[in-house]
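for ur thesis appendix - Exodeoxyribonuclease 7 large subunit. copy paste whatever u need, i formatted it the way the template wanted (i think)
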Amino acid sequence: MPQADTPPLSVSELNRRARLMLERDFGDCWVEGELSGVARPASGHVYFTLKDERAQLKCALFRNRARFVGSPLNDGDRVRLRGKVSIFEPRGDYQMIVEAVQPTGQGDLLAAFERLKHQLGAEGVFANARPLPCPPRHLLVLTSPTGAAIRDVLAVLAARWPLSRVSVLPVPVQGKEAAPAMIRALALANRDARFDPERDAILVTRGGGSLEDLWAFNDEHLARAIFHSRLPVLSAVGHETDVTLSDFAADARSPTPSAAAERLVPDQTALRQRLDSALSRLARAQRSRLDAETQRLDHLRARLRHPGERLAQQRAHLGQLEGRLQRAMQSRLVEARTRQRHAGARLKAFDPRQQLDSARQRLAQADNRLMAALPRQLAEHRQRLSSLVRELQAVSPLAVLGRGYSILADDEGRVIRRSQDTQPGQQLTARLGEGRLKVEVKRRFKSAPAPDQAATQAKDQAKDPQRQNEAD
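the 3d part is after this line
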């Protein structure tokens, strides 16, 4: 028991010491179980729980390791994990940092195969479909040099097409080193093909075996290497019922190595038979063509005439053509002369000089009429203008001003019509018949009353002089 005066640990310090102890004591270890709660956040890391019948363990597969996992991780998959036990200090979570993932059992291999097949198919890795040369000038075979597949291939090639040039690129076809070795061999074959144009096809093959035996041909990187191969690739792996990702990525697939060899080269026996048949048809065609040409020559000889007879016929025909040409020329000449006479007559009838003289006469007459009408029109316009001037002067306010009247207006240009519209001291403008005056209002007077009203006002003023003064 620690002493009472021992200083306590902080939570972070406790978690740190526990993490160091776990990582130091356990190190790397393998754990097998079933996946559950697989999560893939945007960071690229993969988080999941590994469980069995009695316990569970939180796991973290970081992005730099997740990209090396060949098949995607799904809930329910049974896997083997390699990693180290640790603690996530911020939360105190006990977890395993995963370094590698391996599927377990044949069922898991089939599931991984289907997942990888779907992934590569979606990426277009299985889109190759280039034609294979038949026969290839130089065939490269990637297989085991001691296996039954290469013996079957060579036997079929020798029987069907002995002229085949074959190069064997020895590679392991089973185990962990098989896929990398085949990838390197494919790269070497494509590189050397740039210097040897005779190399025009690659055969990837091996004999039958279990799913585990053929698993190297389901490698993702091998499938991509086959897809990117510059040379067309034919895949023949296992028996007829065996299917691998290499078959899908290749340009063509054959069920067995022997069938691949039969597909690559023609059968010499069948070719000899076809050649013999073609030679027989050629001989018959030559004889038929010779008979037909001989008969045609006989007909041409029968139709052939002496050149002198042919020349006489041509001379007679030439004479006929010459007579027709002369008659046609005479007829065309007569027609041209007739058209010329008619055109001359029409031109004389429409002589421009006659039309010009007639136009001059009409112009002189119009000039005389214009000179006679011009003074009369001027007199009429002067008379009408004088009448309009008199009418304008009769209604013009300037004429009224000329008789001694004036128009008063205030500073804003309003015309003063009543004395009530002004104020004593107000400046007004008086417009006269000639010029303007600036005047000032000294007094205002009311309008002159009617006679009856004037008498009445006079009486009122006599009675009340003060009222008269107020009115003024």
